[in-house]
Specification:
Elements (H helix, E strand, L loop, with lengths): L1 H4 L15 H7 L15 H9 L17 H35 L26 H4 L2 H34 L4 H32 L2 H23 L9 H8 L3 H34 L4 H13 L2 H22 L1
């Protein structure tokens, strides 16, 4: 009857096989599993491994750290400040150049070449500024042409000294000495005006006419360089022939003239190299002979001197026709 008096809805305890004390002890045992046992670990680590339960949580990938909106805004603000400083610097440079142009007066740019003392009675005759007037891709070549002209001028001066040394040892060198003075006085300004300034203007304004004028004159200058390097006697040049002729009589004077011959040879070689370099740049600028003709015709027709002369010729012809008719 006891079975009937018990609660039929209660959980049976005697018939539950999982309530067996041996089974409960096995399931709740704190012994480490077999997979966690490492026979090669040290004693200390083995004890810690036995006492530390294995982590059963799954591996989770840490999300990539992205910059915060505040950091992005700060970087953008710094970039804007840097751009603003660059614009302010360029604006200051433009203002400086504008002030320089205003201080030069209505006549335009004040001449700054040759650089002479303020107390000197002669004032500069030309304006020259590679950084301002010449495009960056042509500045190096234009400077090299300027240095070539300066080197040639110094060589002509040394040629005068060599001919003077020859005159002190032999009076027959009087002709060479006189011609060396003439070449120094003649070639120094003429080379500046006839081939350096045209190439400077050609690079500054991209003028086809200036390029063609430069090529024609500079080719003649190359021929002169070669003649000076050869050193024909009685021509006023301390070239190779003159140097070898004098060195037999006076070795010191001959050595001086050979140094000048080397300088003339360098001028000749450098001029040929620069002629090829300028020609290669000229071909990339798009200049042509037709453009040179147009620039020449426009320059002549718009010239005040030409217009004044043409108007005077027309008025003179008209006056002569009227007198002849009367």
């Amino acid at each position: 009857m006891s079975d009937f008096e018990s609660n039929p809805f209660a959980e049976p305890s005697a018939h539950n096989p999982f309530n067996d004390p041996s089974v409960t002890q096995a399931t709740n045992s704190s012994l480490e599993p077999v997979d966690a046992f490492t026979p090669f670990s040290p004693a200390g680590q083995d004890t810690a491994a036995r006492t530390t339960p294995a982590s059963t949580q799954p591996a989770v990938l840490q999300p990539s750290t992205e910059p915060s909106p505040q950091a992005s805004a700060a970087a953008a603000q710094a970039n804007l400040l840097r751009q603003q400083e660059e614009l302010e610097r360029k604006a200051a440079e433009l203002d400086r150049r504008e002030q320089e142009l205003q201080t030069r007066g209505p006549a335009g740019k004040a001449n700054n070449w040759p650089r002479l003392p303020k107390s000197f009675p002669i004032r500069p005759c030309f304006y020259q500024d590679f950084e301002e007037e010449i495009p960056p891709e042509y500045q190096r070549v234009c400077r090299m042409m300027y240095y070539l002209w300066m080197f040639h001028s110094v060589t002509l001066f040394l040629n005068l000294l060599a001919c003077l040394a020859c005159l002190t040892s032999d009076t027959a060198c009087a002709v060479d000495f006189g011609l060396s003075i003439l070449w120094l006085i003649l070639f120094t300004p003429c080379s500046f005006l006839c081939w350096y300034r045209p190439v400077y203007k050609a690079f500054r304004t991209d003028s086809s006419f200036s390029f063609f004028f430069f090529f024609f004159v500079f080719f003649c200058q190359v021929v002169i360089f070669v003649i000076q390097a050869v050193g024909i006697p009685k021509w006023g040049n301390s070239g190779w022939i003159t140097a070898f002729t004098v060195i037999g009589a006076n070795k010191a004077v001959g050595a001086i003239m050979m140094v000048v011959a080397v300088l003339f040879t360098f001028c000749a070689g450098m001029s040929i190299f620069m002629l090829k370099m300028v020609h290669s740049m000229y071909r990339r600028t798009g200049a042509s002979f037709q453009k040179a003709q147009q620039e020449f015709s426009q320059g002549v027709l718009t010239s005040k001197t030409f217009q004044t002369g043409a108007a005077g010729a027309v008025s003179s012809a008209a006056a002569g026709g009227l007198r002849g008719g009367n």
